[in-house]
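In the previous chapter we treated chains in isolation. Here, by contrast, the input contains two separate entities that must be folded as one system, with a combined length of 830 residues.
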Amino acid sequence: MTPAPTPSRWALWLPLGLFAVFASLVLVGLLRPADRAVKSAMIGRPLPQFALAAATSMQPGVARADLADGKPHLLNIFASWCVPCAVEAPQLRALRARGIDVIGVAIRDKPEDLARFFAANGNPFSRVGADNVSAIQFALGSSGVPESFVIDGRGIIRYQHIGDIRADQVVMIAARVAEAGQ
Amino acid sequence: MIATMGLAALWLAAALAGLQLIGGFLSLRLPGNPLEPVVRPAAIVQAALVAIAFICLIAVFWRTDLSVALVVENSHSAKPLLYKVAGAWGNHEGSMLLWVTVMALAGGCVALLERRLPERTILATLAAQAFVSLGFYAFLLIASNPFARLDPAPPEGNGLNPLLQDPGLAFHPPTLYIGYVGLSVAFSFAVGALLTREVSPAFARAMRPWVLGAWIFLTLGITAGSYWAYYELGWGGWWFWDPVENASLMPWLAATALLHSVSVLASRNALRAWTVMLGVVAFAMSMIGTFLVRSGVLTSVHAFAVDPQRGTFILALLAINIGAALTIFALRAGTVSEGERFAVVSRESALVFNNVMLTATLGIVLLGTLYPLLAEALGSQVSVGPPYFNPATAVFVLPMLVVMGIGPLLRWRRDNFARIRPVLILPLIVLAGVAAWLAISGLHLLALLGIALATGLLMIALVPLKGRRLRTVTLPLWGMVVAHFGIGVALLGVACDSAFSTEKLVAARVGETVAIGPWLVRLGRIEPVAGPNWTALEATLAASYSGGAPHELKPQSRSFWTPVQQTNESAILTRWNGQLYTVLGEEADDGRWQLRLWWKPFVTLIWLGGVLVALGGALALLGRVASDWRRAIASGKIAYRRQRQGRG
């Protein structure tokens, strides 16, 4: 018969020690909330070269040079067929009202659908480029619509926002744009 | 009015928990103190009061009482009644009230029914239970009052997360909670036994039904949760190693280990300190599970439940409860004598092996779940997924399953392999044959091992019944056989799914036919349909199995409007030999539609196995409770007779 092992005194404290390690680890995790924003590999990089034709007859198209004109811009990737984009529209209008230049890139869209979308949701964009093959979308490392990029005056990406901008995020985005302008 | 009554009942219940705590702990130092007789009644009345509070919460949801903030946030007058009621616990505050309700009811049952243990152990157990409950009462009443009012009442509520509008999900969280909270009773028993140094077979027998009950609910909860994720998320997978899934798996692993070590303690008086330790660990895992879901410290598909401040509160409760229990353990476990000894080849050894493997698996899952947090603390971001979990857990799970087959054939105390060799030969031959056949077909190693092992397990699980007359087999033995057989069934499903599943993502025109496995799927038409609070595009698919008559499937892409959200409703066709799983995606620009199709042979065995495991647990529980009941009645009769003789 094997004797059942008798745990030594210090071994009995081991579970408590392990638990203390666990508790302090999650405490650190809680007190220092992680930056949930996706760390884009593109942040700090210059925009790729591109030139998009106008998506509608109402506004001009977009080229890289339009985003590197010395002023910060908000580049918004959207589509008329995307429901969250419609939800996001009031926030983009609010950003526009704060004097921020919002530039749109419409993904796989048609002029008549865009016209309907703008009629229903308003048009906050100064320029709208048509990206019919998602080329710019991929070049920017963006995975879906809507997505927004803060571009500083030199055409460098400063911030990437995945998903729609919520009402409570308008101030944060405006701050990011202001930061990029300094 | 109803809300006020609920809140009042909750405060009264908390006060009674305080009384129960003081009375129970005082009895440790001052036996015979005047508060002692109050402890059991306090637990019983507390259970009744909390039940009233919970019924009040259901009532305000039933009536959509918009003066209650929680109803406004989580309900809507246009919602179907089932989801209105389920909304009562489909949110943070309500689910915490559900937690204390189940906990108080369990405490009430212990106070009312448990007579086998020494009275001071029961009092200490009830005190420990009150200690844990008080933390949750404080949490509810201070930081998450479910009955908080809004003045003026808004005209309409804000709806429920559309992902949660599903009958499965209405019952999934309560099932898991009953499991978690059942483990709190095991925890209280463990602490009570440590405090009074009464770690005995009687303690194990008193604790066993609670562990079994909790384990049954956890098994069902995990099985149902897995099926929910499978058909609702539309990704075709049944287990994602998501932190929240792991959060429910870890208590299950600990409870499974505890269930087996409790059996050793109850029938052989061995593994004393280990059983107590597992009792603490199992509840710790339940609280860690709740913490991970509620705190948002880890990102997951269940992110709807997140709030960091509440996370801090639960972490504090966790630290106090588990820290205190582990300190008591460290101080007292040295004085718990080691118990009976056993030989290397014996049923005890097989159960110890099972315990070590389960604990190791638990450690692997815990480490993998927390690793992103650890990495983040060190300044990098990682996510840990199936490439880690699958092989790392398989290393421990596969040997454990082998021993699971052999262990029940061994005798207690001492045995030798020569005795059981004859019954092992047939399963081994079958296992080797299946492995050889699969190896020729060039399968992935893990899938091959899984299928071969599952076939062997299915046979060997039935061996304990061999040579017995089935009518005389006891319920607990039936339970074990059914549960072990269920594990084999689930393993077979898992292995078949990973070995034989085929997947296809196509862009199809209306009228086009797509082939997947033995199926031909024709996209019939796409139409808009409307539900109570959503609109959807619905595809009509005609699927025929190897040239047979077509069956209709209607997958949907749904848009909810309060709040705005899109979900994919998969459509699944179940045959005896597998499931055809279809998802409707977006419309491509040239009039074609994205269709995602899977043919998953024998995938249903996964959940069938889970249900069998739970059924096995239920049979064992029924058997134990019935024999306890008979014993209680018999000893009652003896006591009655003695009393009469004493008088006569």
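The beta strands of chain B are 502-508, 513-516, 519-530, 534-545, 551-553, 556-561, 564-569, 571-575, 578-587, 593-601. The first strand of chain B starts at residue 502 and ends at 508. Compare these points with the single-chain example from earlier in the chapter.
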